[in-house]
Specification:
The complex is a heterodimer of chains A (350) and B (412). Chain A is an alpha/beta fold. Chain A folds into two domains: 32-228, P-loop containing nucleotide triphosphate hydrolases (Rossmann fold); 234-347, CobW-like, C-terminal domain (Hypothetical Protein Yjia, Chain: A,domain 2, 2-Layer Sandwich), CATH 3.30.1220.10. Helices cover 31% and strands 24% of the residues of chain A. Chain A has helices at 45-54, 68-71, 102-114, 134-143, 145-150, 165-171, 173-180, 195-208, 224-228, 238-241, 263-277, 334-347, and strands at 17-18, 21-22, 32-39, 61-65, 86-88, 94-97, 123-127, 151-161, 184-188, 214-216, 245-247, 250-257, 281-288, 297-302, 305-306, 310-311, 322-329. Chain A has an eight-stranded mixed sheet, with helices on both faces. In chain A, strands 11, 12, 13, 14, 15, 16 and 17 form a seven-stranded antiparallel sheet that branches. In chain A, strand 1 and strand 2 form a beta hairpin. Chain A is globular, with a radius of gyration of 21 Å. Chain B is an all-beta fold and 412 residues long. Chain B has a single domain, classed as YVTN repeat-like/Quinoprotein amine dehydrogenase (Methylamine Dehydrogenase, Chain H), CATH 2.130.10.10. Chain B has one helix and 31 strands. In chain B, the strands form eight sheets. In chain B, strands 7, 8, 9, 10 and 11 form a five-stranded antiparallel sheet that branches. Chain B is globular, with a radius of gyration of 20 Å. The chains are: A alpha/beta (350), B mainly beta (412). At the A-B interface, strand 2 of A face strand 1, helix 1 and strand 28 of B.
Chain lengths: 350, 412
């Protein structure tokens, strides 16, 4: 395995570092966590974000919205800001409207914080517009070097309206993608739906996304810890892996490998997949046991982009098998992907 | 009175989690001595030196870091002295005594048996008082056998009163009878030297040519990594303790403002981390930095980077000092955290900051903690003075003036 560190050969990397740099306690390392809140128009995203900001756990949050008006912040909470475009809120939070584009907004947010122009925030909540497809946003955070270095998409949260959610999922491919790509789901306005409607909605959500934990909002709010938690990977149960979720145009499946993979084989397989079928590779996330690494290596890919891998200090549970979750579109199904990985793994060292 | 302020609010916190705060019974002005004792009864006791009188040292039971408890807090014999520095090895603790003026007593260091933390028993004293001496400012005690100190001595007359402390090695294998076995000072520092007098820094930046930190690691017992304030950094060969010899000297001042404080060698990585202490309020001696040096050839340490600082404009007028000071020093002892990739450093009103130096050419800040001004703060700002990390990764840092002890978890 090639040592990826830029100073390799000059200074030893230190006991705490592996071939991918310092081994991290969690995938984000020291990067600022970004929580992406998606959901179809009127699903209750703004109410959810506001409830988070008002909670103790939501202190020191920066919120990025398309327009200030959208978040509906009480004007009394706004204070004069050091920089135009950023509103300081109570509770140590701040709110920022998207400037010329998302990249510019996030770069500016980070540099403003570094030079002390805005308060030090602990996390960013990015509230997308109802019709936004989260995929290009995920791509931006993976593909833009400055953003990838400073920010980490901690989770994608999809908010679904209990009353109108099924119609939205039926009629809008964006709504289906929002759910399929989510790490967590929140069902809002459950008081407006019958228990039968709720059951039907849950079944549809599970068909699109079998693994993301779901919570029902109470008056628009859920436990802040649920929103702030790191996304976790599904336990590598063979049952789950053998029962891939299907929905029109979307597929998700989990691959599991018991033996550690050679890094060369893993990158060869992922590289080939990204190159040849990137358009259908909506999201790949996984923890992989890599030969020669002490902890699991975190893999995250969106379409053609594979994020720089990071090695964790330790596995999150007793399981040591590699697990890779694929969310794909079109006809990219489990079998050819698994065949590719197994074939490449068999090749062994060159 | 035992006040714990669990509701302390940081004014800025990133990638640290504040889990405890203790005002140390209203005597929360702490020096640069923090040391962990793994007591035989299973408790973890953090020993902390006070920055100034009336208190000498405080022991805090941090077995549960969310519920720190003061075990003992002792008084100094008088107001014209302070302890400032201490270290523990097993059940023995060495405590520095420095007087406000030369000629006062007690000046030196005291050894305690702390096997019962509630009842530290004095078992030895090393006298460093004298007509030109303020005693001991800082001490290093890591191997249980020798104390390495920045100290004056009865027989040591400096040309300049600011140059009163030098490097001394004291054998404490018989704690009741500590005995000096070696010493070193900068040529030209002492009256009677056959070397030319030291060329001083310009008067507005002359903080003295004297010893500060005297780090000697068991991994390399033949080396002393010596901060010499305006003299820069020295690496000494102490394989013959009676005759320390200079291997190299790295000095950044002028143009910098001197006060080289600590040299932390990263033996596994051929690197040195060097701090300069800010000693003037309102960042008048800015920039005081944490430097990274290429240590592949100890005869020629080469600066390759500094750890990034927050904007001076944001901190200069907050009150008190702003700039580097102490780092967690990687003593290879039970209960101590060890890292050659993450550096934790204190910056007075700039709080506590952690840096990832995995790529030593590009240190990156990965966490910070700047508490709000402590209650009754005379400066209106925090002055984070020293930091220690235990082997659980729990971080302890202290305010220099009044705020006491802050306990944090690393979250990065």
């Amino acid at each position: 395995m090639a040592d990826a560190l830029p100073f390799a050969g000059v200074f030893p990397s230190g006991e705490a570092a592996g071939p991918f740099g310092r081994r991290l306690r969690r995938p984000r390392g020291a990067r600022v966590p970004v929580i992406l809140v998606t959901g179809f128009l009127g699903a209750g995203k703004t109410t959810l974000v506001k409830s988070l900001l008002e909670s103790e756990a939501g202190r020191n949050t920066a919120v990025v919205v398309n327009e200030f008006g959208e978040i509906g912040i009480d004007q009394a909470l706004l204070a004069p800001s050091a920089e135009g475009g950023v509103a300081l809120l109570g509770n140590g939070c701040l709110c920022c409207a998207v400037r010329s584009d998302l990249e510019e907004t996030f770069r500016q947010l980070f540099t403003d914080r570094a030079r002390g122009a805005i308060p030090s925030f602990e996390r960013v909540v990015l509230e997308l517009s109802g019709a936004d497809d989260p995929l290009p946003v995920l791509q931006t955070f993976l593909g833009e070097r400055a953003l990838a270095r400073e920010y980490h998409i901690q989770s994608v949260i999809a908010v679904v309206d209990a009353a109108t959610g099924r119609a939205a999922l039926r009629d809008n491919p964006e709504a289906r993608r929002q759910v399929a790509l989510a790490d967590r789901m929140v069902v809002s306005k459950s008081d407006l739906a019958t228990s039968g409607e709720m059951d039907a909605l849950m079944a549809e959500l599970r068909a699109l996304n079998a693994d993301a934990p779901v919570r029902t909002a109470d008056h628009g709010a859920v436990d802040p810890d649920f929103l702030l938690a790191e996304s976790s990977l599904p336990a590598p149960s063979p049952l789950r892996a053998d029962a891939p979720a299907h929905a029109p145009g979307l597929t998700s499946f989990v691959l599991r490998f018991d033996a550690p993979l050679p890094w060369r084989a893993l990158t060869a397989a992922l590289g080939l997949l990204c190159e040849m079928r990137g358009a259908d590779l909506l999201r790949v996330k996984g923890l992989v046991a890599v030969e020669g690494c002490r902890g699991p290596v975190v893999i995250h890919a969106v379409r053609h982009l594979l994020h720089r891998p990071v090695e964790l200090e330790a596995w999150p549970d007793a399981e040591r098998a590699s697990r890779l979750v694929f969310i794909t579109s079109g006809d990219l199904a489990r079998q050819p992907v698994e065949d590719l990985f197994r074939a490449v793994a068999r090749l062994g060292p060159p | 009175m035992d006040i714990t302020r669990a509701d302390s609010r940081p004014s800025a916190i990133w990638n640290f989690r504040l889990i405890g705060h203790h005002e140390l019974n209203g005597f929360g002005g702490m020096g640069e001595g923090l040391s962990m004792q793994m007591a035989k009864d299973g408790r973890r006791i953090l020993w902390a030196a006070h920055e100034s009188a009336p208190k000498n040292f405080t022991a805090i039971d941090v077995t549960n870091p969310r519920d720190p408890k003061v075990v003992v807090q002792t008084d100094l014999p008088h107001q014209q002295m302070r302890s400032n520095s201490l270290e523990t090895v097993g059940d023995i603790m060495a405590v520095a005594y420095q007087t406000k003026k030369v000629g006062l007593e007690p000046a030196g260091f005291e050894l305690f048996d702390i096997s019962t933390p509630e009842n530290p028993k004095s078992i030895g004293f090393f006298d460093a008082s004298g007509p030109y001496s303020r005693g001991v400012h800082q001490l290093w005690f890591c191997d249980g056998e020798y104390v390495h100190l920045s100290s004056g001595a009865r027989d040591f007359q400096p040309h300049d009163p600011k140059d009163d402390q030098f490097y001394r090695i004291v054998d404490v294998r018989n704690p009741s009878k500590p005995e000096e076995v070696g010493r070193w000072w900068m040529p030209g520092q002492r009256v009677g030297d056959n070397a030319p007098k030291i060329q001083r820094h310009p008067s507005h930046m002359d903080t003295g040519f004297r010893a500060h930190n005297t780090n000697v690691y068991p991994q390399r017992p033949d080396r002393c990594y010596l901060g010499y304030i305006d003299g820069g950094m020295y690496i000494l060969d102490i394989s013959d303790k009676s005759l320390p010899r200079v291997i190299s000297n790295w000095d950044n001042s002028p143009p910098y403002y001197g006060f080289t404080h600590t040299i932390l060698p990263l033996f596994g990585r051929d690197l040195f981390v060097v701090t300069d202490e800010s000693v003037v309020d309102n960042a008048a001696d800015w920039p005081k930095l944490v430097w990274i040096l290429d240590g592949r050839d100890e005869r020629n340490p080469v600066p390759i980077a500094t750890c990034p600082m927050p904007p001076v404009a944001d901190f200069r007028n907050r009150g008190g000092r702003f700039g580097a000071h102490n780092v967690h020093e990687n003593m290879p002892l039970p209960g101590h955290w060890f890292s050659e990739n993450i550096i934790l450093a204190t910056f007075f009103n700039g709080g506590l900051r952690a840096f990832d130096i995995t790529d030593p050419y590009a240190p990156k800040e990965v966490a910070h903690f700047v508490p709000e001004a402590p209650r009754n703060s005379p400066l209106g700002a925090i002055q984070i003075n020293d930091v220690f990390v235990d082997d659980r990764g729990i971080v302890y840092c202290v305010d220099r003036k009044i705020g006491g002890l802050y306990i944090l978890e690393m979250d990065f």
